[in-house]
Write a structure and sequence with these properties.
- This protein has 311 residues and is mainly alpha-helical.
- It is built from 13 helices and three strands, in the order βαββαααααααααααα.
- It has helices at 23-27, 48-56, 60-63, 78-84, 94-118, 146-154, 163-177, 181-209, 212-221, 225-244, 254-261, 267-287, 296-310; strands spanning 14-19, 35-39, 42-47.
- The protein has a three-stranded mixed β-sheet.
- A hairpin with a 2-residue loop joins strand 2 (35-39) and strand 3 (42-47).
- Helix 7 (163-177) crosses helix 8 (181-209), helix 10 packs antiparallel against helix 11 and helix 10 (225-244) packs parallel to helix 12.
- The longest helix is centred in the middle third of the chain and has 29 residues, at 181-209.
- The chain is globular, with a radius of gyration of 25 Å.
- The model has no long low-confidence stretch (mean pLDDT 86).
């Protein structure tokens, strides 16, 4: 949040770094190092080789290290400056998928948590509610016949239709595959029950493990405003990158983001805004000047040169 300019006096400080490793970690086989994490202070240090892969894949948390305000960098080896000189080579249309993907995950969490607030899953589901016997007749769903599993995967997108139509699909497919329709219907019910049980366990984890401050925030505003801020920031960054090839880590909209975190936007506002923003991002993808892929012909020789120098 300090790098974004959205921090408050209560904000913690998180640290990120990139390092090289000794030659026995590269040329040998008995040692491996990808990253080091600490809790106090909260931070992570990446192996250069892992970090550069993440950055080239436009992972937001890795890529943003190349575009930090210089005041937010505590230490930089001269080799880091050489990577900064070619930082635009890391930018590509992949930002559409990574930034929007992270944003949509924040939206999904926000929707899920709001569902928990509005309709708490207080009791575990009963097998009888799904017309199932007390003990499962199919001990392991993943051990069911492979052909049926393939069938279920092929119609995974049909869960939104009503139950009667779903069962009709099962019956027709089961007959075509030579299965007894009762078995397929039982499998369908078992999967429904399993999904509901997973939902119950997810709710209980959320209820018992969530941060007390965020619990209070959700109860006050009807949504997790921290997820909301991440959603808005990531989608705006994505549009800026596609339209102007600009990666603005230090946010020009920092004050508005702070207001959103303090409950300025209602849940309905967030849903409406995210839908409109997604449409703008989709349109920008069609006209962006970003290349399809990062310039690995520029990135990889530079990384090899840096590694050889340290070795």
């Amino acid at each position: 949040s300090k790098a974004y300019g959205t921090d408050t006096p209560e904000s913690d400080t998180d640290y990120r770094g990139v390092c090289t490793v000794p030659k026995d970690y590269i040329l040998g086989f008995s040692k491996n190092f990808e990253q080091y994490e600490s809790k106090d202070p909260d931070g992570v240090v990446f192996n250069l080789l892992k970090w550069v892969k993440l950055a080239a894949d436009t992972n937001p948390n890795a890529l943003e290290l190349l575009f930090l305000d210089h005041k937010d960098i505590l230490f930089a080896h001269p080799c880091w400056g050489e990577l900064l000189d070619i930082r635009e080579a890391f930018l590509s249309k992949r930002v559409y998928y990574t930034f929007c993907g992270y944003a949509k995950s924040q939206l999904k969490r926000m929707q899920t948590h709001r569902g928990y607030l509005m309709s708490p899953v207080k009791e575990p589901p009963s097998r009888k509610d799904f017309g199932l016997p007390d003990k499962p007749l199919i001990p392991k769903l993943d051990a069911a016949d492979a052909a049926v599993q393939k069938l279920l995967d092929s119609i995974a997108g049909t869960w939104a239709i009503d139950k009667t139509e779903q069962l009709n699909i099962y019956d027709k497919a089961a007959t075509a595959l030579g299965f007894d329709t009762n078995f397929v219907e039982l499998l369908y019910k078992e999967k429904q029950y399993s999904a509901r049980m997973s939902e119950y366990h997810s709710y209980k984890r959320w209820e018992t493990e969530r941060n007390p401050k965020r619990r209070e925030m959700e109860l006050k505003f009807g949504l997790d405003t921290k997820h909301c801020v991440q959603l808005v920031r990531l989608m705006r960054m994505c549009l800026e990158l596609l339209e102007n090839q600009q990666f603005l880590v230090k946010r020009p909209d920092a004050e508005e983001l702070k207001a959103i975190r303090n409950g300025a936007w209602k849940y309905e506002d967030v849903m409406s805004w995210s839908k409109d923003q997604e449409a703008k991002i989709d349109a920008a993808l069609k006209t962006t000047k970003l290349p399809d892929r990062p310039n690995l012909k520029l990135i990889e020789p530079k990384v090899i040169e840096i590694m050889e120098r340290f070795l």
